[in-house]
Amino acid sequence: MTGNGxxxxxxxxxxxxxxxxxxxxTEGLTRISLALERGExxxxxxxxxxxxxxxLRAIAGLTHATSxxxxxxxxxxxxxx
Length: 81
Known about the structure:
- This protein has one helix at residues 52-60, and strands at residues 14-23, 26-36, 67-72, 75-76.
- The longest helix has 9 residues, at 52-60.
- It has a 4-stranded antiparallel beta sheet with strand order 2-1-3-4, covered by helices on one side.
- The protein contains 1 helix and 4 strands, in the order E-E-H-E-E.
């Protein structure tokens, strides 16, 4: 069991809880939440500059989230590169 009360088999493969990521000095993405189960697929659509790549970069650890939590397989990866 992980610290969030979920076991590995019941926690989502990817979870974002209230994740915020700035665009340089501007606000950027604010309080994004989602959960994906193993095998699920997600499509991000939106106009240029909407934050699709920024969100993916935060999930991959290439961009720092200023708030919220990113868990992969039930493990908090928010602060890991």
